[in-house]
Amino acid sequence: MSALRELVLPRLDGLRTSGSGYTARCPAHDDGRASLSVSAGKEHPVVLHCHAGCDRDAVLDALGLTWEQICQPHDDRKDDGEWTPRGPAVAVYDYVDEAGELLFQVCRTADKQFPQRRPDQSRKSGWSWKLGDVRRVPYRLPKIIDALESGKPVWIVEGEKDVHTLERQGLIATCCPGGAGKWRSEFDGFFVEADVTIVADRDEPGEKHARAVAQSLADVATSIRIVESAVGKDATDHFSAGRTIDELVETWNATQGQDIDLAPDLWEFIGQEDPPPDWVIPDLLERGDRLIWTGFEGLGKSMFLRQLAVTVAAGLHPFHLTDIPQRTVLMIDCENSERQSRRKFRPLAAASISSRHRVPDGALRLIHRPAGLDLTRDDDAAWLIERVTAHQPDLLMIGPFYRLHAANINEEQAARRTVAILDAARTKVDCALVVEAHAGHGEQGANRSVRPLGSSLLLRWPEFGYGIKPAIEPDQHGRVKLVKVERWRGDRAERDWPTQLVWGDPWPWQHVKHGHVQKHPEGWQQKYDD
């Protein structure tokens, strides 16, 4: 098999056929437009060209490959019979019996379909695309048998691509034909007294498949454990990101459930002392808390969130402007450009200096993705997890929510997948999470709700949901200088959120105290009932 089909194509995302070659998203940069061209060359086994300017070695490095690996000879057969009923094959995997005799093949197409074929000399092509009663066996069966005879552990993954990935790590790996949900009980006999590690894909079918395989092998294997990738969806994503075998995350092992302690009863439970709150912002947000902050267009919700980021990083309470423990903040803006954002942050940075709480270097990190993210896509989800893991923030701020996936804003499944990735990022580093969202447009005027636009899942997901709406009419310049802070879902814990904010100086939004608004720099004052 060629290096192109065996090594390169299975590692690429967004793969499509194009003429005699392929296009894909370049792994060496954040590529949203499939700018990488890939083909077999006349003088070289693989030709890679990134139209955004990434050189060949950078692309190979991002794929976890070297030019030497590309050029080394391979022991597989040449690329014959690449046609399949579902499009050209980009990889062909041989399933052989104990003696190495070919039983059938699994073909992989560019759009990740997996037609199967068996040798059939009665056909002109030499192949039949129906397996019929052909014996099914695990992939790489002779290697499994050799490993077990020598006492080596065996790894079970979901697909052939991941088998090759693990083999490059020096491991003995296998999978079943057909992928998730296709494990057969007759495979169990090959794993008697085996030490088995199952690598689960990080999705519902993958997790279900891993549990089914573990259950099937429970009576024959010596040991079983389930692991998953630390980043991305599968083993290939994990190792392509530079992670090691030891960094795979164990989620289950066969000893679990054998010596389970009984859960505490009611009286033991309520008699335990609660640990003190681990505040990120005292009396507002603990580690693990989720807040969705909404508001009407042009009212200043984004400015408030920037102020929140700066004050927390500076060690100032965002409402009382009193000293609090300084925290690290990562803010990912999926709407504004760096130029737009820079203009907004300069006066806030100056305010931190004038307040004698200059933001320490490195305390507030800013990432701008004005094209948005699509957290329903594995690559964008992995990108987010990687950034959050690298920065280890106390407070993660991201949004607006409608720029976090590309589906219809009201679609429940897209919202569910998106919040699952946000939760994974939050729990990965045990941070508080603040998400910006737009208010809906169902009503106008004073009766307009500040509930977030989109799926009703957003009403149930966070611990706290607040939004700002006008408390008075706009001034002659169209600015509303007094806003209500309205709760649009019940708090899951008692917190000290304000009910109104006033536009002020040097900090744009300030907490109203004792029913009075402090003098505005332009002389504006207002007295009201809190």
Automatic annotation (TrEMBL):
Pfam families noted in UniProt: AAA_25
Highest taxon above the source species: Bacteria
InterPro entries the UniProt entry points to: P-loop_NTPase (IPR027417), TOPRIM_DnaG/twinkle (IPR034154)
CDD domains reported for this sequence: TOPRIM_primases
Sections of the chain in a coiled coil: none
Protein name: AAA domain-containing protein
Species this chain originates from: Saccharomonospora amisosensis
